[in-house]
Write a structure and sequence with these properties.
The protein has a single domain, classed as Alpha-Beta Barrel (TIM Barrel). 38% of the residues lie in helices and 16% in strands.
Length: 125
């Protein structure tokens, strides 16, 4: 079992990685919620979502994928907001940790369009 520490709406993308590393345990890892990170970017001047991914590095094991506009935790279908998804997936491609990607959407009806949006842009298979 691995416990993951998720970002809330904080500005510092390093804080979870530092906490996880301080445990010195493979049972601790980082989780990123893309909507939370994007809200922090739009509302508090935090770095964009892809920066959170890069700063987590290979401690990243889990990601909640949701789209948003940077003004709230929206849980929108992927493609409805303005998260820079190409940059996020480019950052994910740099990792060897192979984090688990979970669509965390407001409505389950958003799952097929989210998958199709990502497939159409060669970001998912």
């Amino acid at each position: 079992m691995t416990m993951v520490v998720e970002n809330i709406m904080d500005k510092d993308p390093d804080i979870r990685r530092i906490l996880v590393e301080d445990f010195h345990s493979p049972a601790m890892a980082v989780s990123i919620d893309t909507g939370h990170a994007h809200y922090a970017y739009g509302s508090t001047g935090a770095p964009p979502v892809d920066y959170f991914v890069r700063r987590a590095g290979n401690t990243l094991q889990h990601i909640h994928l949701q789209d948003a506009d940077g003004y709230a935790d929206r849980h929108w279908t992927i493609g409805e907001g303005n998260i820079m998804w190409h940059a996020v997936f480019r950052a994910l491609g740099e990792l060897s940790s192979n984090p688990r990607l979970i669509l965390e959407l407001r409505h389950k009806s958003g799952i097929p369009p989210s998958v199709e949006w990502l497939r159409a842009r060669n970001l998912a298979r």
